[in-house]
Amino acid sequence: MSNRAEIFEVGPRDGLQNEKTMIATADKVKLVDMLSVCGFSRIEVASFVSPKWVPQMADSADVLAGITRAAGCRYAALTPNMRGFDGAVAAKADEIAIFASASEGFSQANINCSVAESIERFVPVAEAAQAAGLPVRGYISCVTDCPFDGATPPEKVAEVARLLGDLGCYEISLGDTIGQATPETITTMLKAVLAEVSTGQLAGHYHDTAGRALDNIRASLELGVMVFDASAGGLGGCPYAPGASGNVATEAVAAVLNDAGYDTGLDLDALAKAAEFARTLRT
Ligand code: HMG
Ligand code: MG
């Protein structure tokens, strides 16, 4: 078994998108630059969504233009539709992410369409990304619990994972959007998803609302998941998921993975400095 585990840093996107006070573009660039020296292979820095829906991400192109890119690191952007895809390409994002939900209520609240409609909308985006040679990551929100629909059936997560895999997503990130999962519900959900896609294609994206994200990561490691999304300083939340608080903190995940014997390849001193700066951006 490889002892490598990876943290996908999502702080500049998922961490900051929910901040009510507009954060200066220069501070976002500074955060990304501080994260870039930590040794991440992938950092999500931008989101080409409607600025009416998520005002904080309106300067995504400027952030991508302002950062100092580290060799070996891919800078990712969310793209809900072709307009977002075109924006991400123009801003030279290295990879894109399409984002679906396993629950209808959250799909409507977050991207204003049903789950099936969202998959249809992602088809041209995934095709265009493949034509442009850009890796596509897929998110599934509300993999165990939805703030609108209650408990999410594991087979629904498995179905959406298969659809995203069919669209060519190289990795599928499983979101506990409102941080209500338990090791038991995560394990049940993962077992259902693993019937459709392989463990090497999965990432865990756990918010820490109830303080169980690290336990959920340990449960996921047991089933072979080796990639976890996290946000330096534990910033974050989704504006369309009532009750969603921060992503699990990158520095806490790094400590758990190190304690469990996994090598994350991260410079923990540089990470501590980035996390400290990230926390100053919280309003
Ligand atoms: P809509 O209103 O159904 O779509 O929104 P529309 O096509 O009618 O567009 C509405 C307006 O937005 C129009 O402008 C469009 O031009 C504009 P208007 O005519 O009103 O002036 N527009 C855009 N502007 C910029 N970039 C674009 C774009 N597309 C349309 N790409 C839409 C549909 C998807 C656009 C909207 O619902 C939206 O932007 N939603 C994004 C919500 C979001 O970003 N949520 C947070 C990210 S997801 C998340 O955090 C979960 C995750 O972390 C995993 C987890 O934790 O579970 C990933
Ligand atoms: Mg999230």
UniProtKB/TrEMBL annotation:
Could you tell me the superkingdom of the organism this chain comes from? Bacteria
Pyruvate carboxyltransferase domain: from which residue to which, for each copy? 5-272
Concerning its family, UniProt says: Belongs to the HMG-CoA lyase family.
Q: Which GO terms describe its biological process?
A: ketone body biosynthetic process; L-leucine catabolic process
InterPro entries on file = Aldolase_TIM (IPR013785), HMGL (IPR043594), PYR_CT (IPR000891)
Q: Which residues cross the membrane?
A: none
Q: Keywords of this protein's UniProt record, alphabetized?
A: Lyase, Metal-binding
GO MF annotation terms: hydroxymethylglutaryl-CoA lyase activity; metal ion binding
Q: What is this protein called?
A: Hydroxymethylglutaryl-CoA lyase
